[in-house]
Amino acid sequence: MRLILLGPPGAGKGTQAANIVKKYQLPHISTGDIFRANIKQGTDLGNRAKAFMDKGELVPDSLVVELVEDRLQQDDTKVGFMLDGFPRTLPQAEALDSVLENMGSTLSYVVNIVVDPAVLVERAVGRRICRDCGATYHVKFNPSKEDGVCDLCSGELYQRSDDNEETVSNRIAVYTNETAPLVDYYKKSGKLVTIDGLQDIDKVFADIEKALEV
Ligand code: AP5
Ligand code: MG
Ligand code: ZN
After folding, report:
1. Residues whose CB falls within 8 Å of the CB of residue 173, separated by 6 or more in sequence, listed in order
2. Helix (H) or strand (E) holding 30
3. Is residue 94 domain-resident?
4. 154 and 207 share one domain
5. What pTM was computed for the model?
6. How many angstroms does the Cα of residue 206 sit away from the middle of ligand 2?
7. Which positions ≥6 away from 141 have C-beta within 8 Å?
8. Does residue 121 lie within any of the structural domains?
9. Which ligand is located closest to the Cα atom of residue 58?
């Protein structure tokens, strides 16, 4: 299965991607996670991406597209993939189409998680992530059993540096201007599946499972 998760910041892409890759045994390709790993390692790519991410702006297409092209050439994607946070612009979507065409393959589904913009800031600002295993929590909606400690691996929970109110607001505006047009793009291709992301995390996943079984 070759999947894309679409949705604004805080919609629940990462949360649902974790469920999907576990059930369907797919590699999880999150461009945001790849950039954050590069920032942590201090690579040239990380240094270049950081300036954009800190402001809540998109990293330029030229840096993102090549990265994803390379990633999709790796062997583990033969069984399929779960793209989370890519594509985010029309040029990225077109580049993905031509990569897939060259590989003789096509997308299975584009899962669009729809959420009322009013909840997005609270979701992002309350998010906490495990430093060791990457598990995602929310201080109110999905708290860890012990404050600041991961349920799965006892790792330390941290807050993303772009999860403050000002940066999140800009990320939402950037999504509306640059990424939201992809919904129409994929609607036209007949691959779009729309999921109500305002429900509980488990119910959102149940709806995704149902949609992917069709
Ligand atoms: P990225 O890391 O992709 O961030 P994003 O798109 O802003 O999305 P988020 O990760 O914030 O939200 P999510 O939908 O994954 O939500 P989550 O499941 O964690 O990108 C970061 C930056 O990198 C970008 O700003 C850009 O600079 C750069 N970048 C990345 N890709 C790029 C690209 N292709 N092109 C250019 N630049 C790129 O959930 C959020 C919170 O809500 C969590 O706390 C969770 O527990 C909670 N939650 C989830 N579901 C529910 C629910 N149903 N009910 C209640 N709470 C819930
Ligand atoms: Mg995410
Ligand atoms: Zn953990």
Report:
1. none
2. strand 28-30
3. yes
4. no
5. 0.96
6. 19
7. 123, 126, 201
8. no
9. 1
Longest dimension (CA), the chain: 48
Number of domains in the chain: 2
54-111 pLDDT, tens digit per residue, is: 999 999 999 999 999 999 999 999 999 999 999 999 999 999 999 999 999 999 999 9
Smallest CA-to-CA distance from 76 within 108, 28, 34 is with: 28
Q: Which domain holds residue 140?
A: 127-162
Provide the 3-class DSSP secondary structure of residue 109. Answer: strand
Radius of gyration of the chain (CA): 16
208 with 133, same domain: the answer is no
Ligand 1: which residue has its CA nearest to atom 56?
141
Same domain, 91 and 25: yes
- Are 15 and 95 within one domain? yes
Q: Is the per-residue pLDDT at 119 higher than 90?
A: yes
Question: 60: cis peptide before it, omega within 30°?
Answer: no
Q: How far is the CA of 156 from the centre of ligand 3 (A)?
A: 7
C-alpha distances (whole Å) from 163 to each of 92, 134, 143, 169 are 24, 15, 17, 10
Closest protein CA for atom 40 of ligand 1: 10
Whole-number Å distance, alpha carbon 85 to ligand 2 midpoint, is: 7
Q: Which ligand is nearest to the CA of 136?
A: 1
147-180 pLDDT per residue, tens? 999 999 999 999 999 999 999 999 999 999 999 9
Which residue in 23, 48, 22 sits closest to 35, CA to CA?
Answer: 48
